[in-house]
Amino acid sequence: MIQLIRGFKDILPGEAGLWQHVEGTAARLFATFGYGEIRVPIMEKTELFARSIGEETDIVEKEMYTFADRGGDTLTLRPEATASIVRAYIQHKMYAGDPVHKLYTIGPMFRRERPQKGRYRQFYQIDAEVFGIAGPYIDAQMIHMLHLLFQHLAVTDVHTHLNSLGCPACRPRFREALLAMLDGVTDQLCPDCRRRKDRNPLRVLDCKVPACREAVADAPAIVDYLCADCQAHFATVTRALDQLQVPYTLDKRLVRGLDYYTRTTFELQTGVLGAQSAVAGGGRYDGLVEALGGPATPAIGFAVGFDRLVEILSRQHTMAARPPALYIAALGDAAKEQAFRWAAELLEAGIQVEMEHGDKSLKAQMKRADRLGAGHVLIVGEAELAAGVLVLRDMQTKAQRELPVAGVTAALGALLQSARNSGDDGNIS
Ligand code: AMP
């Protein structure tokens, strides 16, 4: 039997309800904050990711699904969404007129990482980006929105880590100090970090190898090297978060593995997922739009790990499939034909109906209706049809009533209306 690819996974119907619930919650919340949905392709020219994410990163060096297209282009399955959204922002000149745009997208990303619990090769992100706002309040508002997303989903065990990465004006001074410190511990670093350290020393702070983490424990903090503008920006972000009562921890080791980040950077972590503790990450990337050929445009964004969020939720909730309002137990061919037409009529009216398609006994059909959690069962046998009177059983109270065949769908429609109106995507409990 052919199995799915390692690191990929199926989302089965029992779990998909939670995915829909998260998607709906995010879409409603983001719309309130003025974000519009954008959908970008899952594949782009490799160069886009190499240039925006940075050649020195794990993603570009080792993790991209890249292949030569038959036409000769080198294409890559997107490892994240920001680069594509920036490309779209520039390509469609979205900056013309009003450069401010708030966008979000939800979809699959691909990274050839070592698969383990919470880490997949195809995973999903909920991604939000704001273009054209340089001021610090949008940073705080974005973190606030993220905080509310988790609150609306009743996920409480998440904590925000916050840092500033400075800007091209102040980062060189920090880089120098960091390099001087790293030169003293070079032999403790992993081969990747030793190789990268001179070209991109910040990446060493981000390395997950325990020996590297230990080696940089006493590394200087970027916040001590910020220029006056970056300091003022960061001070306003933290003050705004304090005012909004969004809790956070200043984390000097928090740097992003992606090259284009500047100033505010943040990560949401949880204690419930073991090793894969990051559930969302983001920050400012004021230099990227220009680096990719657009006009100089400040920007900030985040990505939530959808799979990890659902993993947390699935420990707290189950998503029950919506049970049918009506099950039609049909006995015999004539009854089945009639039941089929009635079912179609009720389905058209938006009422969830199931019917028996096989040749089961009434007892077996009642059992199945029970298992599905049907609200009512309509019993349609040859005798009932001949008499022109059907039996409707309320599965909760066990009460039975008779319904004349004439006008039965209208009667059922009225009776089951309340079932149709209650809940649209199952029940979270
Ligand atoms: P990043 O784009 O690396 O900043 O990741 C943003 C979020 O996506 C992380 O905080 C994770 O929750 C999630 N994520 C990243 N890589 C994976 C992966 N391989 N499998 C599952 N989730 C991931």
Describe this structure in words.
The structure is a single chain. This protein has 429 residues and is an alpha+beta fold. The protein has two domains: 13-170 and 226-316, Bira Bifunctional Protein, Domain 2 (BirA Bifunctional Protein, domain 2), CATH 3.30.930.10; 326-419, Rossmann fold. 39% of the residues lie in helices and 22% in strands. An eight-stranded mixed β-sheet has the order 1-5-6-11-10-9-7-8. A five-stranded mixed β-sheet has the order 14-13-15-16-17, sandwiched between helices. Strands 2-4-3 form a three-stranded antiparallel β-sheet. A hairpin with a 5-residue loop joins strand 3 (65-68) and strand 4 (74-77). The protein is elongated, with a radius of gyration of 28 Å. Adenosine monophosphate is lined by residues 80, 111, 113, 119-120, 123, 125, 278-281, 303, 305, 307-308.
